[in-house]
Amino acid sequence: MTQPRRSPCPIACSLDLIGDRWTLLVIRDMMFFGKQRFEEFLESPEGISSNILANRLKSLEEMGLVEKQPYSNHSRRMNYQLTERGKSLRSVLKVMTAWGLKHISDTKIPDDEQSRSLH
């Protein structure tokens, strides 16, 4: 299902796909914190609600940025992983991290092992 484009501008088109309040945070959690399961995303400090999270994961899958795999015999328990297309957002997130650290006071990178790839 493809949305009509507002313009051919690559920034506008990118924002139409990933520019909402939550999508890049879900991608961040997969990419830099190794989160794969629905419950793990809910533990993030930003406090995403379960209905918004379900919607974002579904959208990410439809965009080809995420794929899901069952991780138990229960058909509703899924692991979510970034596709190559999703992984290609790494440089975008790293630049956003550097910009935020430089220009927004009191921002910091979490001081745990899994966030080391943000440096």
Describe this entry's structure for a reader.
This protein is mainly α. It is 47% helix and 8% strand. The chain has helices spanning 10-18, 23-33, 38-42, 50-62, 84-87, 90-103; strands spanning 66-70, 78-82. The model has no long low-confidence stretch (mean pLDDT 90).
What is the ordering of alpha helices and beta strands? Answer: HHHHEEHH
* Structural class by secondary-structure content: mainly alpha
* Mean pLDDT across every amino acid position: 90
Q: What is the strand content? A: 5-15%
The amount of helix comes to 40-55%
Number of E-type strands: 2
> Could you tell me how far the N terminus lies from the C terminus, measured between alpha carbons in angstroms?
36 Å
Query: Ranges with pLDDT <50 over ≥5 residues?
Result: none
Shape: globular
Provide the fold topology.
Blueprint: H1 10-18, H2 23-33, H3 38-42, H4 50-62, E1 66-70, E2 78-82, H5 84-87, H6 90-103
Antiparallel strand pairs: 1-2
What key phrases describe this protein's structure?
2 strands; mainly alpha; two-stranded antiparallel ribbon; 119 residues; globular
Quick overview:
This protein is 47% helix and 8% strand. With 119 residues, the protein is mainly alpha-helical. It is globular and about 45 Å long.
